[in-house]
Amino acid sequence: MSKIFVDACFGKETPYTPVWMMRQAGRYLPEYMEVRAKAGNFLNLCHNPQMAAEVTLQPVDIVGVDAAIMFSDILVVPNEMGMELDFVKGEGPVFAKPIKSIEDVDALIGGEEAADKLTYVYETIKIVREKLADDKALIGFTGAPWTLATYMIEGQGTKTYSLVKKLIYTEPELMHRLLEKVTEVVKYYLEKQIEAGVDVVQIFDSWASALEKPKYMEFSWKYMKDIASHIKAKYPHIPIIMFPKGIGAYLDDIDGDFDVFGVDWGTPMAMAKEKLGDRYVLQGNMEPCRLYSKEATKECVEALAKIMKDGRHIFNLGHGILPDVPVENAKYFVSLCKEVSKRDK
Ligand code: CP3
Description:
Helix content is 49%, strand content 13%. By secondary structure, the chain is an alpha/beta fold. Coproporphyrinogen III (CP3) binds at residues 22-27, 36, 42, 69, 71, 73-75, 87, 92-93, 141, 157, 204, 206, 320. Coproporphyrinogen III is lined by residues 22-27, 36, 42, 69, 71, 73-75, 87, 92-93, 141, 157, 204, 206, 320.
């Protein structure tokens, strides 16, 4: 059976424009909170394939999205490269011993050995695959090397990025050595996700906007493109979605071997369409806080449908859904996207 989401990623005409939401498996769903409570904490949930599969499927069943995204976190990769990880209540992820030197980089577990340690992710994918309806797609994902490296060096979220940026300007060879090592692991990781059964992969570059354009191209986009062309060469039937958040001003320099460009909420969709719409299908880009209001949601969905009336579009938010959004509003967003984009055929 053909999957409307996969068809849309390749720019084929579909009965309506498919929709999913970044971070759709999460705290806004009471059913997620129940499973997480059973697991004890967030990392235990990631490590338990049965439970991770259950929360992966929740947004498909409850909210009606066209694709599931496997439940995990981008930071399990550096964790399995040997970095101790904790999710601290109220503060988010913390690495106890951030990377400080070339010796620290060289001590990390690399290549296939690191990717092979993520068995719980591949198990989750296999369980979801069995339970997911044939017409729904399963999305696999990774963090971009730059975003992962930022966490590995800063040790946690940051407002200034001063530790990682200091390395970019003072020790670029250390940065490249780390980025190359992470890139190699990520290539194996995505291959193994695909072998386990995902239909599509997305690369999240959440901290893209931290870098000025030449440094972004050199320290992030180059590695993302390398990953995309590696995966494309081996698995041409698997669509690749790139999501570099906050680089609307750099769109003129975007190229590479991928299928879908994720447009963040700060980038006007009409501008993204003008610059990239002929070459890539566009995903996005409603401001996630619009979900607090049905009127605000409707206004945006209708505006997006108008701009993207010729297709080559996937509805989504312009970043992740927030934990205090009413489930009813998420459902409204999803059903409205399908309704306004229905093609009469
Ligand atoms: O539904 C899905 O999208 C799949 C699951 C998913 C999670 N994290 C689960 C999660 C995905 C795709 C991610 C990606 C991720 N993780 C990113 C990239 C996307 C983005 O939002 O920019 C980033 C930067 C992370 C790192 C991360 N993980 C942070 C900063 C936090 C804490 C902030 C927060 O939202 O609580 C996490 C924890 C996390 N990852 C949660 C979930 C559901 C919340 C944990 C919980 O309390 O249950």
